[in-house]
Amino acid sequence: MKEIVFVTTNKGKIASAQNELKSIKVTPISAELSEPRTDNIKDIAREKVLQAYEIVKRPCIALDSGFFIDELNGFPRAYVNHMLDTIGISGILKLLSEEENRYCEFRSCLAYYDGENIKFFESKSPGTISEKIRGLDSAKKWSDLWYIFIPRHFDKTLAEFNEDDFHTYDEMKEESCISKFGKWFLSSSDILEKI
């Protein structure tokens, strides 16, 4: 079985990677990676994977995500953790309390680095923001945004999803950056083995 090292302190991201990369062994390494001051998630993913490689000295992946709210000119973008630490999801709901346009999207970028080349995989998950905090805590949760994010084609937040909802959502949504990476990694590894 192919193996990839995933450097992150986010247990939810590790669970997602292990769930989506069933044919690849995901080896989590818990390390705090510093993020450059930019709202470009691709630049942040690049910096994270370069730092990760310096720690593990072997091919690895790092992931960065942002949350973009139309009505707030894209805020909080890549500064999700800062937003959660300051105004929180209640602050987001307050900012949007009088707004009709509640469109938002998660954008994610996974960076792979083997010591020579960096490859990027990106994805988006569109939706809307609920009018109040809804749902329960879950082991799958990787952000408090789960309580206010309603994915496109649904009428409930991720925190209100049951297993069937997650299955339906996985079939309907754009392929994730993790899944795109997995397909590429397996096919490129096969090519390298044949040489």
Write the layout of secondary structure elements.
Layout: E1 2-7, H1 11-20, E2 24-29, H2 41-56, E3 60-69, E4 76-77, H3 80-86, H4 88-95, E5 103-113, E6 118-129, E7 149-151, H5 163-172, H6 177-194
Parallel strand pairs: 1-2, 1-3
Antiparallel strand pairs: 3-4, 3-5, 5-6, 6-7
Write structural notes for this entry.
The protein has helices at 11-20, 41-56, 80-86, 88-95, 163-172, 177-194; strands at residues 2-7, 24-29, 60-69, 76-77, 103-113, 118-129, 149-151. It is α/β, with parallel strands linked by helices and 195 residues long. Strand 3 and strand 4 (76-77) form a beta hairpin. It is globular, with a radius of gyration of 17 Å. The chain starts with a strand and ends with a helix. 31% of the residues are buried. Mean pLDDT is 91; it is low at 191-195.
Tally of contiguous helical segments: 6
SSE sequence, one letter per element:
EHEHEEHHEEEHH
Unreliable spans are 191-195
Fraction of residues in helices? 25-40%
Number of strands: 7
Question: In terms of structural class, how would the helical and strand content be classed?
Answer: alpha/beta
Strand content: 25-35%
How would you sum up the global shape? globular
**Main sheet overview:** 7 strands, mixed
Termini, distance in Å? 18 Å
Please tell me the overall pLDDT. 91
Work out the radius of gyration: 17 Å
